[in-house]
Specification:
Layout (H helix, E strand, L loop, with lengths): L6 E4 L3 E4 L2 E4 L20 E4 L7 H13 L10
Antiparallel strand pairs: 1-4, 2-3
Length: 77
Amino acid sequence: MTSAVVIGLSAVIIAIRQDEAVVLTVRPHDARTSRPSTLVGLPFGPFDPEGTRTFELALRAFVAEQTRFQLGYVEQL
């Protein structure tokens, strides 16, 4: 039996504000209630190799969707 592999991507977006590093967080929607979660987290999304050619393109798409922020430089770690 073959099981499907699911790949998830998280984005850590760092900015310097007033000489301090800050990380962009989101409040994802709760799948059960369809309301924003009370918890904050990193932007996160699935990678579908059949729908998106690269990790970077998938990352840029879900970050823009969740934050309305267009990413500049991206580094995969």
